[in-house]
Design a protein that fits this description.
The structure is a homodimer of 599-residue chains.
Chain A: H1 8-18, H2 21-26, H3 36-54, H4 58-64, E1 67-69, E2 72-74, H5 79-88, H6 109-120, H7 122-130, H8 132-141, H9 144-155, E3 159-164, E4 180-183, E5 189-199, E6 208-217, E7 228-233, E8 235-237, E9 243-246, E10 249-254, E11 265-278, H10 284-320, H11 344-376, H12 379-414, H13 426-434, H14 443-456, H15 461-476, H16 484-510, H17 513-548, H18 554-571, H19 573-582, H20 587-590
Parallel strand pairs in A: 3-6, 4-6
Antiparallel strand pairs in A: 1-2, 4-5, 5-11, 6-7, 7-11, 8-9, 10-11
Helix pairs in contact in A: 1-11, 3-6, 6-7, 6-10, 8-9, 8-10, 10-11, 10-12, 10-13, 11-12, 11-17, 11-18, 12-13, 12-14, 12-15, 12-17, 14-17, 15-16, 16-17, 16-19, 17-18, 17-19
Chain lengths: 599, 599
Amino acid sequence: MPDYRAPLRDIRFVMHELLQAERHYRNLHGCEKPTPDLLDAILQSAGKFAENVIAPLNRSGDEQGCRYHAGRVTTPDGFRAAFAEYARGGWQALSVPTAEGGQGLPASCSTAVGELLGSANYAWSMIGGLAQAPINLLLAAGSARQKATYLPRLLSGDWAGTMCLTEPHCGSDVGLVRTRAVRNADGSYAISGTKIFISGGEQDITENIIHTVLARIEGAPGGTAGISLFVVPKILVAEDGSPGAANTLSCGAIENKMGLKGSPTCVMHFDGATGFLLGEENGGLDIMFRLMNTARLGTALQGVSMGEAAFQGALDYARERLQMRSLSGPKNPAGPADPIIVHPDVRRMLLTQKALTEGSRALVYWLAQLVDTSSHGPAQEAAQAGALLSLLTPIAKAFCTETGFEVTSLGVQVFGGHGYIREHGMEQLLRDSRIAMLYEGTTGIQSLDLLGRKVMGSQGKLLAHVTGLIHRFCTTHDGHSAMAEFIEPLAALNCQWGELTTAIGTRARRDPEEIGAASVDYTLYAGYVVLAYLWARMARVALQALAQDDAGEAGFYRAKLTTARFYYARLLPRATAHARAAEAGADTLMAMPERDFWY
Amino acid sequence: MPDYRAPLRDIRFVMHELLQAERHYRNLHGCEKPTPDLLDAILQSAGKFAENVIAPLNRSGDEQGCRYHAGRVTTPDGFRAAFAEYARGGWQALSVPTAEGGQGLPASCSTAVGELLGSANYAWSMIGGLAQAPINLLLAAGSARQKATYLPRLLSGDWAGTMCLTEPHCGSDVGLVRTRAVRNADGSYAISGTKIFISGGEQDITENIIHTVLARIEGAPGGTAGISLFVVPKILVAEDGSPGAANTLSCGAIENKMGLKGSPTCVMHFDGATGFLLGEENGGLDIMFRLMNTARLGTALQGVSMGEAAFQGALDYARERLQMRSLSGPKNPAGPADPIIVHPDVRRMLLTQKALTEGSRALVYWLAQLVDTSSHGPAQEAAQAGALLSLLTPIAKAFCTETGFEVTSLGVQVFGGHGYIREHGMEQLLRDSRIAMLYEGTTGIQSLDLLGRKVMGSQGKLLAHVTGLIHRFCTTHDGHSAMAEFIEPLAALNCQWGELTTAIGTRARRDPEEIGAASVDYTLYAGYVVLAYLWARMARVALQALAQDDAGEAGFYRAKLTTARFYYARLLPRATAHARAAEAGADTLMAMPERDFWY
C-alpha cells in the first residue's frame, strides 16, 4: 500500500485561496464560524489520524475482509479500535448543531475530513459515514423525543446506523418498494421485508445499529407516493435509554464484492420488526430526497479520495522505478536507467491524475460551501446556492466518480505489471473506487436527474445560474492577457453548453427518448466544462500569487498553472467528443429491435 | 457467471463475409487450406468445449484461485481434467506445420478458437497458451534435435511451457536482464537468476514444463545486444526422451493478483539450472521479437474475448431486469416496470459494448489473416501483409485491450450495484481484463513502438500502407450514396491522420520528447480510425446482403448497419479528442519539475 500523506497544502489552497473560507464562514449565520486556526487544527488532526491510524489498516482490511457467521459480522482486525479512537475524538458530531449536542460547524468543515479518511482507508471511513444517515434524517424529521432517544449515542459513536432502501427487485426504481409496515396499537409499526446492499447492516463495532428503513404502510398509495420512513433499532431502547430487547431483524448474509471488502454489505431481513415513523406517513421519499444531495456529494468525494491515493502511489513509484532512458538523453547517467517520471507518457498519466483529482477536489469543496450557504447564508445568496447545488450535484457525483475510476486505473497503469498485484495496493484502489459510479444513483441516474429534472424541468433556468456564473467570470477577465489561454476556450464551451441544451430540448419536445439518449454524454460534457471553469479560477489565483511571489512557494503555484494548461490542452478536448455524442440523437440507440442485439 | 454462448454467427460473418476466408485460404501455399466445412467443424467443436467444459469452471476458478505450498502450485478444481480433454482433442497442434507433427492449418484458424476459449474462461485458456511460447520459439530457432526432444510432447499437451523474461528490476527495459548463463563443458549452460510474473511457471496440470528463458552469457555485451534465449526444462529429458533428473529451478511464490486468479503467476528461481541455447548466442531478442506480433495479437484478442462475455452478460440482464418505465410510455404494461433495455442510456452502454467488441473482432481476425499471408502468401502480398501487420499490431494490442476494459466496466455498469458483487460474474470480467493493458507491453510501450519505431522510423512509409488502403476503399465507394454516411467522415479522418503525423514529425525533429508526448493519444486515434474503416466495410457487406435479402437474416444485417451508424455517431467523435491531445505537444508534460508534482 502506498504511504498516504494528507495533501494539506492543496486542501488549504482550495479552501483558503480559491474558495476564501474565512470570508465564506464570516457570511454564515446560525452556526459556528470556524477560524482559520480552528480549520487548520481540524485538518492537522484528521490528517494524522488518517495517516497513522487507519491507512495502516487499509490493505489488511481488504485481505481479511468481513466475515459472516450465523447472523454475526466480524469486521477486519483493528477497525473497531480505530473507530473507538475516532469517536472519542468527537468527529461524529462535527457538523451537527450545538443545540442538538454537536459542535455546530458548517457542513463543509466535514468535507476535508471525509476526503482524508477516505483516501487512507475508504472501507473503514464508511463506518463513520454510516451514522450520518440516521443523524441527518433525525435532524431533518425526527420528533424531539426521537432525537433525545437516538442522537446522543449516535453522536458519541456508541451507535451507528444504516439507510435501508434497496430491495432485490428494486434499486433505482424506489417506487417498487415492497417492505410493509403495519400499525401497532402503541403507535409503532411492524416492519417486514428484505433489504439488500445495506452497508453496515450488521457489524461488531458499535453497541447498537439504528436502521432507517423505507417501507409502505398498509393501504398506502402505490409507487413513490406511498413510501414512509422508519427508525428501526437493532436493539430496542427503553424509556430510560437503556438497551431493551433485540428487535426482530437479522442479517442473512454479506455480499462478496469486488472491493471495499472491509465494509460489510448486508442482506437484512425485517420480520415484523418494531419501527417508529419518521416525519409524516407517506412522506418518506421527501425526507430522503432532501438529504440526497449530501449523500451524492459524499460519493463524489470518494472519487477525490481514491484519486488522490492513486496519484500519490503512482508518483512515488514513477520517481523510484528505473526503466529505460529518456528520449532526450540520460537523466540519471550514474544509474542503470532513468526514473520513469522522465518519460513523457508517464507524465501524461500523472498529470491526468493530478488535473482530475485537484479539479474534482475544487468542485466538491465548492459545492460543500454552497451547502453551508444554502442553509446558513443570507436569503438571496442561499437561494442562489440552492439553485447551483441542485444543478451541480448530479454533475459532481457522475463526473468525480467516473474520472476517479479513471485515475485509479491510471495508478495501476503507471506501475505496469506491478500494478496488477496486491503488494503495491494500486489494484485495491481500482476495485474500491469502482462502486462509486453505482451507489447513491448510477451515472445514468444522475444524468437523467440533471438533464431531465433539473435542466429541462426548469426550462433552462437552473442551467442559466451556472452558465451565467461562468459567463461573468469570463467577462471579468476579458482582456486579461495572461488569462486569455483559459478564458477564450472556456467562453466558447460555455456558449456551446447553451446551444447543446437548446438543441436537445427542441428534439425532446418531439421524442422524450432524446433526454435519456443524450443524458450521460451531456453530463460528462458539463463536468469537463465546470472543471475548466475551476481550473481557470485556480490559474487566476496562481497568477496572482506568482505576481506577489507569495511565501516563496513559486513552485507550487507554477505547478497549478502548468496543470491548468495540461487540463485545457489534453483533457478538455474530451468535452467536444461528449457534445457530439450527446447531440447525435436517439435514433441510433432506439432503432435496433431488442431481438437483434445478438445473434 | 453469465451463460456464455459462442457467437458463431458473428464469427462466421467476420471470417466468411467480411474477410472472405475461402478465397484467403485458397491463396496460401505451404500450409493446409481449410475448407469452409472444416472451419465450421472447428468453430462448432471449440464453441461446445468453451460453453460446456470450461465456462462452468470460470467462477469457481476465480473463487478458489491457485494455491502455493512449498514450491508446488495447485490449480483450481477441474482445470487439469479440462486441459486433458482439450489436449486429447489435438487443439495444441492446430496451427503447427504437418512436417513438425501438427495439423498444418494457418495461424488464423486458431484465432476464433482462442476467442471462444478466452471468453469462456480466460484464466484456463492461458494454460493452453503457455505451451505456445516454447512451441513457437522451437519452430523459429530450435535445432532438429531440440525439436525432436520437446515438440511432440508439447503438441500432445503432455507438457506445457513458459516465457521467462521479466525480472524484479526490469520489465519493459529488457536490456537490463541480469540472469546469467555460464557455459558447461557439455555444451549446455548453467542458468542463474530470478524471473517474475511467469504465467504457469509451476502448475499441476502437465508432467513437465519447458521454460524458455532470456539470460546473459558470461562476457556478453551489455544491453539488448547481449541477451540469449535458452530452453530450460523443469525435468531434464534423457536421450531416449524419458524423464530425467529434476532441474535446479524452483517456484518461490505465486502473486496475489487482481484477477486471472485461476492462472498461477510465479516467481521463478534458476539456481545453475541446465539450459540449452536456442539459436545463436546473443540472438535471443531477435528470436523473441519475431514472435512478438503473435503474442500481442493474442492479447488484443483478450479484449475481444472478455468484451464479448461482458456484452452477453449485460444484454441478458438488460432484457430481464425490470426497473422504471420507458420515457415514451410503458413497454411492459402488464409487469411492475419495463425491462431496462428500453432505456436509451442502457442501450447506449450495450451498443458501445457491441460496436467495440465486434469492431475489435474484425480487426484482430483481419490481422490474423495478414499473419497467414505474410508467411504463406504470394511474395508481393506477403510483403504488403507484413507491412500492414507491423503497423497495425501495436494499434490492435493497445486499442482492443483499452476498449476491452471499458466494455467489461460497462458490463458492471449495466448491472448497477449487482455488477459489483461476485454473484453475476461481471466484476470478475473487469478484474480479469485489466491485465491486458499491461502485459506483452503496456499501452505506452505499444504506442512508442507504433509512433517511434514504425511510423517515424519508416519515414511514414508503413503508415502509407494503411492510409493508402483506407483511401482506396473510400475512392472505390465515392458516389455510392448508401455508403456516403460512412465514407465522408472516414475519408476526412484518414486525411487528418496524415496531417497529424506530419505535424508531430516536424516537432519531433526539434525535440525527441514529442514522440512520447503524443504516442498514446496518437495510437488511440489510429485505433478509432481503423475501426471506422472496418465498420464501413462491415456496413458495405450488410448493405449488399440486405439488397439480396440474404438467407432471410435481414435482422442480423440491419443490426450491423445500425451498429456501424452508432459507432460513427457516438464513438468516433473520440478520435478528434485524441487527435487534439496528441497534437498538443510535449510542453505541458515536460514543463513541471519533478519536485513540483505534489506539495
